[in-house]
């Protein structure tokens, strides 16, 4: 029986369509985000501009976690610590009068890399539940350390009376300009992570997730590959923290709490585990749903949890896969 008769010859086009969609979808999302300030200004809804800016920032954090969770298979419950490191770096440097973004970002990246290298070297010697628990422990250590920073607010957090400058210019003081700066970072983060995943390193990381013994037999050091990915992921999350501190004009130990790490995991699951643009979709869906439900009842978290559970149970591959399947069906009908 021929390949055409068995349907084997029809299999290759599906991956090509999926790949094309993965390439176009992020561009569509970024274009929609880019148009939003115009809509917000035209309608006078500046609050929504702040909300979408927060979505863009959290999408960077979700994207960073997706690198080690969706691609590398490493479930970290301490990833919010990296966001908090970036946020506190920005807050402390702004409070000290050295808050230019060109100074803050290198410091935040360096601190996140150091924290990631130290905690990753210990965490990655374990696996499974042990890895989850040790990342949770390190995350909580960072949380309690931030609470002990009494000079910078302690439990009460630190209020920023100004935002970071950019090369000496108060660019971030303008909400629209700040939004486009955040969107630029998201575009750069997506491009970077996509390049990493598509590289030889990225393929080795995926292989280590599926079959670490086989990858090691090819001469790759699985521990070093995972550690490098862990450090890069943490550094990218710290960028989100720097932006979040400036957007909220406030820094709090709550940024490092394990619940924030759980929220990032939910964002990735909702969007589609391992789908990079799905992480962006998941962040948008999570925060928009949170915003909508919080306006109805003070017990909105109960309904929120139920909806997330139902979504996970009755969808496969998250929003990214759902849209991919809908698009494929539409193309087939056309």
UniProtKB/TrEMBL annotation:
Keywords: Cell membrane, Membrane, Transmembrane, Transmembrane helix
Pfam families linked to this entry: BPD_transp_2
Transmembrane segments: 23-43, 55-81, 101-122, 129-152, 177-197, 265-288, 300-319
GO cellular component, one term: plasma membrane
Molecular-function GO terms, alphabetical: branched-chain amino acid transmembrane transporter activity
Location in or out of the cell: Cell membrane
Highest taxon above the source species: Bacteria
Membrane-topology annotation of the record: Multi-pass membrane protein
Matches recorded under PANTHER family: ABC TRANSPORTER ATP-BINDING PROTEIN, HIGH-AFFINITY BRANCHED-CHAIN AMINO ACID TRANSPORT SYSTEM PERMEASE
Protein name per its UniProtKB record: Branched-chain amino acid ABC transporter permease
Organism annotation: Alsobacter soli
């Amino acid at each position: 029986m021929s390949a055409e008769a068995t349907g084997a010859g029809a299999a290759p086009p599906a991956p090509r369509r999926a790949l094309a969609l993965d390439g176009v979808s992020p561009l569509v999302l970024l274009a929609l985000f880019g148009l939003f300030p115009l809509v917000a200004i035209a309608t006078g809804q500046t609050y929504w501009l702040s909300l979408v800016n927060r979505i863009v920032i959290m999408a960077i954090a979700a994207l960073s976690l997706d690198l080690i969770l969706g691609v590398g298979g490493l479930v970290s419950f301490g990833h919010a610590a990296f966001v908090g490191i970036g946020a506190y770096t920005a807050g402390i440097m702004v409070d000290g009068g050295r808050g230019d973004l060109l100074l803050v970002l290198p410091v935040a990246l360096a601190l996140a890399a150091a924290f990631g290298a130290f905690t990753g070297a210990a965490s990655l010697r374990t696996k499974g539940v042990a890895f989850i628990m040790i990342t949770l422990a390190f995350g909580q250590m960072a949380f309690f350390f931030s609470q002990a920073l009494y000079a910078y607010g302690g439990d009460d957090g630190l209020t920023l009376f100004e935002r970071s400058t950019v090369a000496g210019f108060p660019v971030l003081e303008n909400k629209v300009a700040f939004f486009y700066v955040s969107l630029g970072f998201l575009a750069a983060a997506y491009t970077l992570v996509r390049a990493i995943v598509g590289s030889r390193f990225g393929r080795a990381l995926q292989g280590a997730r599926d079959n670490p013994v086989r990858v090691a037999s090819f001469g790759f050091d699985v521990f070093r590959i995972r550690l490098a990915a862990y450090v890069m992921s943490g550094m990218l999350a710290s960028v989100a923290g720097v932006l979040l501190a400036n957007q909220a004009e406030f820094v709090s130990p709550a940024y490092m709490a394990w619940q924030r790490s759980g929220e990032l995991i939910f964002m990735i699951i909702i969007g589609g585990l391992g789908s990079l643009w799905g992480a962006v979709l998941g962040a948008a869906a999570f925060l928009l749903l949170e915003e909508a439900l919080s306006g109805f009842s003070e017990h909105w978290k109960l309904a929120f949890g139920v909806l997330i559970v139902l979504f996970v149970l009755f969808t496969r591959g998250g929003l990214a896969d759902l849209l991919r399947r809908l698009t494929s069906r539409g193309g087939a009908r056309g």
